[in-house]
Design brief:
Blueprint (H helix, E strand, L loop, with lengths): L1 H28 L4 H6 L2 H10 L4 H18 L6 H4 L8 E7 L5 E5 L9 H17 L8 E6 L11 H14 L4 E7 L5 H8 L5 H6 E4 L4 H8 L21 H19 L3 H8 L4 H5 L7
Parallel strand pairs: 2-3, 3-4, 4-5
Antiparallel strand pairs: 1-2
Helix pairs in contact: 1-3, 1-4, 3-4, 6-7
Length: about 290
């Protein structure tokens, strides 16, 4: 009974501490408007505080840099038509299934790289991140990554500069959004690349990266504790035979663009898009609701 009271008291104390820090951070950043106001929910403030170990000054600096980045990069205004070419091979997409905790799942296939423009690749990456987060169920803040190394080799390796920018965007502007990242069966030559890349990761992100090898039972069991085997693609050790279909995914993304515009209250760009006659058939296509 004492243990139960003690743990409850600790939880209550922790919640009060979090609320106090969130209130302090809210006061520190001052009044907001527009998309910044929409972005800075209590859950958002909590994520930035967690990322900076509840240090209000450091959290304020981090959040301020994100708000500045979002005001210029405008991630919520990127539309599928602008990045669709990047997704043709299925090198990065939101899976049709969720993990065991209901989180959005991103599948990354670095061996399927099909373009050379880092700027376009990053816009595609940011678009998919925003889409995955908008697809989260109420109360869920994080997503899971599955990285499939099928077809990967040192010759089609992601440039170090691109890897560093990807990590920079994720860590600095999407803090505490990654729950776990499983690297499935990376080839031995990946080890040299990883030795460099891991230095770009902060300790919290580093701990979320898990290597999985088909012959290592413990690593396979760990991954399956996060995902239903029936949902996992065969190339990731699961039983699903589903394959990435670019046309189907495109229809889904265009429908999601409408949801995104409605959420942010920025449908002018979509209205112009439709008025110009682009992808009218796609906009009218039916596809399962994912929100």
């Amino acid at each position: 009974m004492f243990h139960h009271w003690s743990s409850s008291h600790q939880q209550e104390s922790s919640e009060l501490h979090a609320e106090s820090k969130m209130k302090e951070l809210k006061g520190a950043i001052g009044p907001l408007s527009g998309h910044s106001l929409k972005y800075c929910t209590d859950a958002c403030l909590k994520r930035y505080l967690e990322a900076r170990n509840w240090n209000v000054d450091k959290s304020k600096k981090m959040l301020g840099e994100t708000l500045k980045w979002r005001s210029t990069y405008k991630p919520e205004e990127i539309r599928w038509q602008e990045v669709a070419m990047e997704g043709e091979t299925g090198k990065l997409y939101r899976a049709s299934f969720r993990d065991r905790q209901g989180r959005s799942v991103l599948i990354l296939r670095p061996g399927m790289q099909n373009t050379t423009s880092m700027e376009n690749q990053m816009r595609h990456f940011v678009y998919i991140l925003e889409n995955a987060l908008l697809d989260l169920p109420p109360g869920q803040e994080q997503m899971a990554w599955l990285i499939d190394f099928t077809g990967w080799s040192i010759t089609n390796n992601v440039p170090l500069k691109s890897a560093r920018e990807t990590i920079n965007i994720l860590q600095n502007h999407y803090p505490e959004r990654l729950a776990v990242a499983f690297l499935y069966n990376p080839p031995r030559v990946f080890e040299a690349f990883w030795k460099i890349v891991k230095y770009f990761l902060d300790s919290k992100t580093f701990q979320k990266v898990k290597f999985v090898y088909p012959k290592n039972k413990d690593s396979v069991e760990l991954m399956k504790s996060y995902f239903d085997e029936e949902n996992l693609p065969q190339e990731l050790g699961g039983k699903s035979t589903m394959r990435y279909n670019h046309e189907e995914f495109s229809r889904l993304m265009v429908q999601d663009d409408l949801k995104c515009a409605a959420f942010w209250g920025s449908d002018e760009k979509l209205s112009n898009h439709i008025a110009n006659g682009h992808s009218a058939a796609v906009f009218n296509a039916t596809s399962p609701d994912t929100c």
